[in-house]
Amino acid sequence: MRAMSSALQTTGMLLAQLLQALRRNHALEHATLHVLAQQFPHAMLAGRADARGFMLYGSVPGAAVQAAAHTALQRLRSGEQQLALHPNCGTNLVAGGLLAALALGLATAGSGRSRLARLLRVPLLAGLLPLAMLGARPLGYAAQRSLTTSSAMGALQIVRVTRSARAGRIRHRIQTRAAAAPGL
Fold first, then answer.
1. Longest CA span, the chain
2. How far is CA 103 from the centre of its chain?
3. Backbone angles phi, psi at 178, to 5 degrees
4. How far apart are CA 2 and CA 106, in angstroms?
5. What 3-state DSSP class applies to 54?
6. DSSP assignment letter at 120
7. CA-CA distances (angstroms) from residue 155 to 75, 121, 175, 179, 182?
8. Burial, 155: exposed, middle or buried (Cβ in 10 Å; 0-12, 13-18, 19+)?
9. Cβ density class 171-181: b for 16+ within 10 Å, e for less
10. pTM of the shown model
11. Which of the residues 26, 27, 28, 182 has the least number of beta carbons within 10 Å of its own beta carbon?
12. Which of 12, 63, 5, 7 shows the shortest CA–CA distance to 36?
């Protein structure tokens, strides 16, 4: 029983470390996109974070991506927490979808199986959906802030930045790691 408890505790700690790495990398991805947007305002860029770093997709020079990632890391460490949040993050889309589903549920609650009763609820749904759309971004930002990103970079380091092309798409891999604390 003690061994199982220890294994569960270890698994929980590893999962927490994995999630923290993902949240930090997600924040660094957003911050890097903000920095790049200042330099390349018309570039079409997208990103995707994982526990080992993040990918950026878009036709910008590799040296610019590397410099932007280092600048973003420094700015996050200097307290620019707002860089961790991005208006085009998928978290905002999920928040909008959840609010739209809630609006649909509220609009059709109690309408039963009657097709006419549900049809008569369409105006209510039409009124609720814009409210859901208005709430999507604030809810998405709150979810980014508390769930999907962490601006606390700690000992995070950028290990390597590589650029490659596949099927005509330019992608940049930014690899990170959390450096061990001194004395460990």
1. 71
2. 24
3. -90, 115
4. 48
5. strand
6. T
7. 14, 54, 14, 5, 10
8. exposed
9. bbebebeeeee
10. 0.86
11. 182
12. 63
Percentage of the chain beyond pLDDT 90 is 78
Structure tokens at 136: 């999507």
- Closest to 39 (Cα-Cα) out of 77, 79, 69: 69
Sign (positive or negative) of CA dihedral 47, 48, 49, 52: negative
- Reference 153, options 184, 177, 182; nearest CA is 177
CATH dotted code for 23-85+149-178: 3.30.980.10
What are the residue boundaries of the structural domains of the chain, listed by start?
23-85+149-178, 90-147
What single-letter amino acid sits at 112? G
Residue with tokens 């991506």: 65
- Is the separation of the CB atoms in 143 and 26 below 8 Å? no
Task: Determine the Cα–Cα distance for residues 83 and 5; give it in Å rounded to an integer.
Answer: 39
Rg for the chain (alpha carbons), in Å? 21
**Per-residue tokens: 164:** 């490659």
